[in-house]
Amino acid sequence: MQKRADEKAQGTGWAPAHMQPINVTPGEEPKGIARVREAVIDRLFDVKAAGSSAVKGFRSSTNHFKYKAAIVAGWILLSGAALGVACPSVKNSGQASAIQASVTEKQGELLGRKFTALIVENTSKKDWSNVTIRVDQTWSVSFPFFGTGEAKVIDMSKFVDAHSRSAPETHRPAEVTIETSEGRGVVRLR
Predict the structure, then answer these.
(1) pLDDT value at position 86?
(2) Residue of 134, 142, 132 lying closest to 174 (CA atoms)
(3) Helix (H) / strand (E) containing 55
(4) In this predicted model, what pLDDT tens digit does every residue of 3-31 receive, in sequence order?
(5) How far is CA 120 from CA 35, 133, 147, 179, in A?
(6) Which of 47, 93, 98, 180 could share a disulfide with 128, CB 3.0–4.6 Å?
């Protein structure tokens, strides 16, 4: 033990492995880094060889196989596009803590038609009755009942004003007011 303390004091001898100096001459790489670099380069060459072999195999395959491959590729492309349309990104969301409600705005496009929808969720432990959801103090929609944990997706075109005119399908609300027999809550989305 005394020997280690003396070596530490003099700066020679024992030191933890992570504190050992790396003896490298200038212009030379440490051996560990050189081995990693060589392994990565080897894997890249393997990938390149496998890719060129696959391309050669595809070129020499029959037209029937090429048609099948084109059908599968088209199916994958259409499936990806359908997922993009069906799962549009969330734009804004908020909480109405007075009645424990969650409101999320979603925008999407379906068959060339752009739309905005609200997802309203009752996150409280109580059911709501006589529910009116008002957007920007202009358009509203009503429901007789809204169960606990229930979420409804409401297209903006379902909201109507005092003259029974629908809200524009692409309207992006700034404020959503939820009025129920159990209370009232306001969610600001912008």
Answers:
(1) 72
(2) 134
(3) helix 31-59
(4) 555 555 555 555 565 555 656 566 666 66
(5) 57, 9, 12, 12
(6) 180
d(CA 118, CA 140): 12
Q: Name the helix (H) or strand (E) containing 50.
A: helix 31-59
Q: What pLDDT is attached to residue 19?
A: 58
Q: How far apart are CA 135 and CA 8, in angstroms?
A: 73
Start-end of H helices in 60-182: 63-86
Q: Considering only CA atoms, which of 165, 171, 101 is closest in space to residue 132?
A: 101
The tokens describing 8, both together, are 């530490």
* Terminal-residue alpha carbon distance, the chain: 67
Q: How many residues are present in the chain?
A: 190
- Between CA 68 and CA 87 the distance in angstroms is 28
Digit-coded pLDDT (tens) for 128-145: 899 999 999 889 999 999
CA distance 43 to 172: 50
Q: Which two tokens stand for residue 130?
A: 């006589």
